[in-house]
Design a protein that fits this description.
The structure holds 2 protein chains of 2 kinds. Chain A is an all-alpha fold. In chain A, about 80% of the residues lie in helices and about 0% in strands. Chain A contains 14 helices and no strands. The radius of gyration of chain A is 19 Å and the shape is globular. Chain B is α/β, with parallel strands linked by helices. Chain B has 9 helices and 10 strands. In chain B, the strands form 2 sheets. A 6-stranded mixed sheet of chain B has the order 6-7-8-3-9-10, sandwiched between helices. Chain B has a 4-stranded antiparallel sheet with strand order 2-1-4-5. In chain B, strand 4 and strand 5 (about 65) form a beta hairpin. Classes of the chains: A mainly alpha, B alpha/beta. At the A-B interface, helix 1 and helix 6 of A face helix 2 and helix 3 of B.
Amino acid sequence: MKDIFTIYKREMASYFNQLTAYISIFIFLIFVMIMTFAVAQFMRVGDASLQYTFFYWHPLVYVLLVPIVGMRMWSDEHRSNTIELLGTFPISTWSVILGKYLAAATVWLVALALTFPIWITTNYLGDPDNFVIFSGYLGSFLVCLSFLAITSLVSSFTKDQVVTLVISSFVCFLLFLIGFDQVARWVQTIFGDEASEIFTSTGIWDHFRSLNVGNFRLQDFVWFATVILVSLLGTNFILNSKRA
Amino acid sequence: MIEVNNLCKSFGSKVAVDDLSFKVKKGEVLGFLGPNGAGKSTTMRMVTGYFPPTSGEVSICDINMRTHPEQAKAKIGYLPESAPLYDDMSVKGFLKFTAGIRGLAGSDQKDAVERAIETCFLQKVAYQSIDTLSKGYRHRTCLAQSLLHDPEVLILDEPTDGLDPNQKYEVRELIKRLGESKTILFSTHILEEVEASCTRAVIVDQGRIVADGTPEELRNQSGKDSLQELFRQVTTLDTAA
């Protein structure tokens, strides 16, 4: 536990010593605000649950921005060969994986926390169900965590951060696309209802949307936990096999 | 103490280290000599627990690296060949971080960092960002992290590589001084280094030990009282391989 925290502290210092975290948070906030106020017309629609005006856009932004924050996770260690130092320290690979992962997750927690004015505004202007808003935030953060875990896995393969960024974004985009209304309808017309349902449930959209409306379905948590766990286990496997 | 038994490492069909066995006792400085690509770094990476060997065993102070990696690694201070560092940290920040990983906290950590900075002559750059350091300072910063926890075993992969003659002299003196109380294994392809700071040396070629003895024994073995001559006799030219 102490080792995880030592790695976590170093990573946090590294994120906030460099511009990447600030820029990603800044772009996230700007983009989400533009979409909420200008495109989705938050003030006119009066969507007190923030479901369609605010949270709706999060996965799309995460597709690009989450890999930008996470791309250096392992790629940078491979490039500068500090992975050799880490591999000879008396700590487990898991401590390093978790320390790094939690630090990147904290960056996104900060980004989400900084959207608090929209929550205050909603409460000021209307009478929202704060439980649904909380559920929306939880869904959004779980999407973040899933994309980060995928980025961690991809970055464990290569020392090239750009390759990590492109591949991670692509994988995240595929997960985003599966179950997107238009795609789901297209699958439905070709393969029928049942196939469409199965297909949809493998993507991120179905699970994100369910949390977005305040449904705490067990299958959503199982899905998110599976993506995160499999990606982190994969990261551990790749890092160990690279040394073998 | 370092004990290596029948160590082998293959990468696909290429055999990098082939049935290597040696022992380094406390108070001994073993020079690990060999041409480029002889398997020196691969051996050191296995001894430090970074690479798992294909077969064979490594034990550090009687702790088996395969069965108890974390306990064995805690005994080692390691300077990798390229002296890798986190460029976004300051020298002191980096040393504090590695001291933290080594389980040092509070005043112990502070003292260890100060001592390492002093030993490696890093006072002038202690608060400087690592990405602005010259090669010599980078090397010494990485050397400092290997000394922080006052390890019983020191493994140094080409510790004087890229240093100027003054820095080389300092590092050799440091190795000699530390060697009195520790077990040191260091690799080099500079022969004068062996005579300057080793109590014993082995020459490795194509993953095998081809000569083993004190610098004096090795010189005698050459027939011409020259380490260089012996090195040329027992190793393969990379153009011939």
